[in-house]
Amino acid sequence: MKSRVILKVEFPHWIASLIKTENVIGIKAKEAGKFHFGKLRSSGELRLDYDVAVLPPKKYLQPPKEDLLSYNIASFKVTPSADFQPITIIGVHPYDMHGINQMDAVFSDENKDTNYLGRRKNVKIIGVDPVKASAWSFWHDMGTAYVDKGFDLWLTDIGDRYFIEIGTKSGENLLKPAKTESASKIDIERHKKARSGLKNICSPSRRIKTDIKKIPDIFRANHDHGLWEKRAKTCYSCGSCNLVCPTCYCFDVREDMELNLTGGRRVRVWDGCMLEEFARVGSGENFRKERSARFRHRFFRKMVYMKEKIGALACVGCGRCASACLPDIADPVTAINELSGLED
Amino acid sequence: MKPRIAFFDFASCEGDQLQIVNLEERLLELLQHVEVVSFREAMKEHSDNYDIAFIEGSCTRASDEERLKKIRANAKIVVALGSCATIGGINCIKNYRNQTEVRKEVYGDKYELFDTYLARPIEAVIKVDYKVPQCPINKEEFLSVAKALLTGQKPFIPDYPVCVECKMNGNVCVFEKGMTCVGPVTRAGCGSCCVNEGAICWGCRGLIDNPNTDAHKEVLEKYNLTPQEVMNKFKLYFGWSDTNAQKPQS
Amino acid sequence: MESLYLPRPARLNKILPLTATEKLFEVSFDDGKSLGHQPGQFVEVSVFGVGEAPISVSSSPTRSKRSFELAIRLVGNVTSALHNMKEGSRIGIRGPFGTHFPYKELEGRDLLFVAGGIGLVPARSFINYAIDNSKKYGKITILFGSKSPSERLFTNEMSEWREKAEFLETVDKADETWRGNVGVITTLFSKISINARKTACIIVGPPIMYKFVLMECKKKEIPDSNIFMSLERRMKCGVGKCGHCQMDGVYICQKGPVFRYSEIKEIAEAL
């Protein structure tokens, strides 16, 4: 992979010039010491030292609510939505990049989802290696501390400069207005060092105590473990764990009719398998009625089924589900360790 | 022929009907599909000949029951509007107190002239076909219910907690900001509007059909609320669903 | 690349009431093209302004190339809107989706159909296919159970089924007009004799029915690999994305709705 470096004193100028030419989304501060991806108005807003974003950048590829079709009932004219604005996202962490790569796989299998792929084609990603981790993060043990595809540019903080890996041609084009230099031997050394230090950023208390390759088998063997019932007792079925997850992609489809009762749109909205109505059919039968069955399904989807479907665990270790869960039952770390028989 | 619709109010602040008036141009657009035959908040005329009755407010006295039954008999479809009508609303706070004392406090020495009983949602008195919750109602949701009814559909009112919409909106959880709320057991549909503005969810849309209230009480205590404070959280809007409040008190 | 979610414009040519809650719709595409379905598949039916619903195709591809039939029970907004439509009304169709009954593989075999209630709707697609290709199959037996006489479906086709197959029917609860069998569908098994080695069993019915019918199949010693069933789930998107129809790791809209019993025995959420 080609690489460059940019001095930190030059960095804001580059971002400022990107803001002028691109629709830039960046990682910014939110209240209570939290961070979020949002429209970047100035380079000063960019907070590449963040720990984790409240919502993953998935929201720009599969928005919480998006049009699938618009139609006119009278003329019976139906138009699929196709208006996907180009954006550049700055500050994606490796675990979230893994999440996006997984979504890419899901939406581009034999049934190609034109909404997702239409957006994806128009999204440029400038990733960054984390310098901090949230208290709930455990990506150090999920194989997601590094990522080698999906991004256009990747930044690593190496002291007074950023090391830039160039992933694509359009990434290279993004660098045109930047005052970059070729990476020196020392830069490359520092980059290597920064990379090898990544695994020490998450808290040691967030260790997965088993070999993650064994996780699917461990879960399969524990389909009827008491953990599901026990934890689900205090589950709200609120779907928070689904909705903040970078690899949850389930959706509901609804109609949004205009008040003239002629025009309308068919929209898809985020859904979650933890919600009570998720598996209920028109005739009333609910195929996943019990809280514990839904609770287990989510874990199995992350740890077993998606591995079978796309070859990767659908848990990237961001810790968002654990952090969002008020009754504190969603944490994959304690679940994996408990099922492996390796809890403290 | 356009469906004939009528609006009625019981114990309430009439804020829900105000929301409908506040639809402004869109109200005019709606009027292309319906004929309003009764709407005290917005017009003088009145007729008892209507297809859909929208009712705001809770039932708080025996005489309300007669009026409600008459509306039910006249209407093909009854829609409850707002927290007071759908879940009893904040009027049910009085249900936790001695009813005579409450009357004295409000009506003074003439209290005996003013009849009152436990505040209740109109569903406790008549069959309600559809409910538009919230305090006050959400204009968009009212329109979506109206559109559904005009096209012969069952309206969509979510049966999942506010957390769903709050998460979609990317809010920082109020619990992470040193506050607490009842969003995890409250019916969504508001778009988590209060949390979006930096406040908390007070539960004005009522409980979801199958809330894990025990879990939420545990969580609130874990976040250092006293049992009394936890109770108060649930009393504000969930008074009628709180079984204790449904027992008649003197 | 066309959107997965774009329905093709179609019309309701004919609408026939079947029972108080079911109607039969004959549908054809505006462009005159065939649906090209195979027995057991389903489509997503769109009513703009109301929504989409997954509906099994009830007709056999042998009966018409230009149109297909959907038998629809009134349960929600979409089906209610369809029931209120008139002949000539316009709808959207996506599909056909999902797996089909293995009609090729089963050539040369005896077929035992076990259909409960609305389960007859997808089963009919294969029943009529088999009858129209009767030379390719051995003995055809059809067992049909309804809750009550008024809920019996496709009564006008039963004389053909009686003539060309062994057709037995029962109702859970009789009324004063009913002279036939009374009892749940499994009570019909004692009235038939089958060659277990040669027979493939096709089961479609409400979720509760499968367990009991499978017990009867076991008694008759039909191997699990010769039992096929169509499962109902919430197939919202039909293209393996939305997640609603998933049972364990399997998207029913892709790997189903027709399954071989031996292949889903280990799927905890299947039955």
How do the strands and helices of this protein lay out in sequence?
The complex is a heterotrimer of chains A (344), B (250) and C (271).
Chain A: E1 2-7, H1 11-21, E2 24-29, E3 35-39, E4 65-72, E5 77-80, E6 87-92, H2 94-107, H3 114-121, E7 123-128, E8 153-157, E9 161-166, H4 169-174, E10 180-181, H5 185-197, H6 215-221, H7 226-232, H8 240-243, E11 251-257, E12 263-270, H9 291-310, H10 320-324, H11 332-339
Parallel strand pairs in A: 2-6, 6-7, 7-8
Antiparallel strand pairs in A: 1-9, 1-10, 2-3, 4-5, 4-12, 8-9, 11-12
Helix pairs in contact in A: 6-9, 7-9
Chain B: E1 4-9, H1 15-21, H2 25-30, E2 35-39, E3 52-56, H3 62-74, E4 77-81, H4 82-87, H5 99-107, E5 130-132, H6 139-150, H7 162-168, H8 193-196, H9 213-222, H10 227-238, H11 243-246
Parallel strand pairs in B: 1-2, 1-3, 3-4, 4-5
Chain C: E1 8-17, E2 22-29, E3 42-47, E4 51-56, E5 68-73, H1 77-83, E6 90-97, E7 110-116, H2 120-132, E8 140-146, H3 158-164, E9 166-171, E10 181-182, E11 199-204, H4 207-219, E12 227-230, E13 246-247, E14 250-251, H5 252-255, E15 258-260, H6 261-264
Parallel strand pairs in C: 7-8, 7-11, 8-9, 9-10, 11-12
Antiparallel strand pairs in C: 1-2, 1-6, 2-5, 3-4, 3-6, 12-15, 13-14
Strand content of chain A: 15-25%
Element order of chain A: H for helix, E for strand: EHEEEEEHHEEEHEHHHHEEHHH
Mean pLDDT over all positions of chain B: 93
What is the top-level CATH class of the largest domain in chain B?
Answer: Alpha Beta
In short:
The complex is a heterotrimer of chains A (344), B (250) and C (271). Chain A has helices at 11-21, 94-107, 114-121, 169-174, 185-197, 215-221, 226-232, 240-243, 291-310, 320-324, 332-339; strands spanning 2-7, 24-29, 35-39, 65-72, 77-80, 87-92, 123-128, 153-157, 161-166, 180-181, 251-257, 263-270. Chain A has 344 residues and is α+β, with helices and mostly antiparallel strands.
What does this molecule look like?
- The complex is a heterotrimer of chains A (344), B (250) and C (271).
- Chain A is built from eleven helices and twelve strands.
- Chain A has helices at 11-21, 94-107, 114-121, 169-174, 185-197, 215-221, 226-232, 240-243, 291-310, 320-324, 332-339, and strands spanning 2-7, 24-29, 35-39, 65-72, 77-80, 87-92, 123-128, 153-157, 161-166, 180-181, 251-257, 263-270.
- Chain B has two domains: 4-150, Rossmann fold (3-Layer(aba) Sandwich), CATH 3.40.50.700; 162-242, no CATH class.
- Chain B has eleven helices and five strands.
- Chain C is built from six helices and 15 strands.
- Chain C has a seven-stranded mixed β-sheet with strand order 10-9-8-7-11-12-15, sandwiched between helices. A six-stranded antiparallel β-sheet of chain C has the order 4-3-6-1-2-5.
- Chain C is globular and about 50 Å long.
- Chains in contact: A-B, A-C, B-C.
- The B-C interface holds B 148, 151-154 and C 49-50, 76-77, 80-81, 84.
